[in-house]
Structures are given as C-alpha cells and as structure tokens.
Design a protein that fits this description.
single chain, about 100 residues, mainly beta, Immunoglobulin-like, three-stranded antiparallel beta sheet, 8 strands, globular, Ig_V-set, signal, receptor, T cell receptor
C-alpha cells in the first residue's frame, strides 16, 4: 500500500542552526511520486511550503524560497524538509508531509 510517514514527533534546535525534518514514503506501484510539505501554526489552517516530484520539478512558495528546501530521493523514498542555517522562533509549528499519486 502506498504510504507516507513522519517518524519524528518533535524536533528542537537553537536559533541559527539548520534543521532537517524527515519524511519517508512508499509506492507499491511504479507511479510518479508527488510530495508536499505544509506548515501549520496554532489555530490556523496548514500553509503550503513546497513540493517535489519524482519526475519533474516542484515549486516553493515565495515566502519560503530563501530558507526552505527539499530533495526528493525516489531510490530511498525520502523527501526531507531542510530549513537552512537560520532557524527562527517563528519556524516553530507543526509540519506535514503529504503524498499524492
């Protein structure tokens, strides 16, 4: 069965560091993988951050382009979300990884 998993429930870091949030996915078919990351602040709806695809190129919302990156690895079935070198208190949120076939 196709699935997506985030095993780590919580991650902490000091301001200014780089943070990587892990997401693993499994495809039982040879379908293309479309992975999406979302950020949710308390009492708010999830906000789209970025996407990456096994074939083709995803997009990143303008407000996240400077510090948020991903690199889908279809061999390992991973799509980590990297917050580059300047993690901030305002980055504190719930992050969701989603898979679309």
């Amino acid at each position: 069965q196709d699935s997506v998993e985030q095993h780590l429930r919580e991650k902490t870091s000091a301001e200014g560091n780089q943070v990587t949030l892990l997401c693993n996915y499994t495809l039982m078919s040879s379908a293309n993988a479309y992975l999406f990351w979302y950020k949710q602040l308390p009492n708010r709806s999830p906000t789209f951050i970025l996407s990456d695809f096994s074939i083709g190129k995803g997009t990143t919302e303008p407000e996240f382009q400077e510090r948020f990156h991903t690199k889908l690895d279809s061999t390992l079935g991973t799509v980590p979300l990297m917050i580059e070198d300047d993690v901030r208190v305002s980055d504190s949120a719930v992050y969701y990884c989603a898979l679309k076939l």
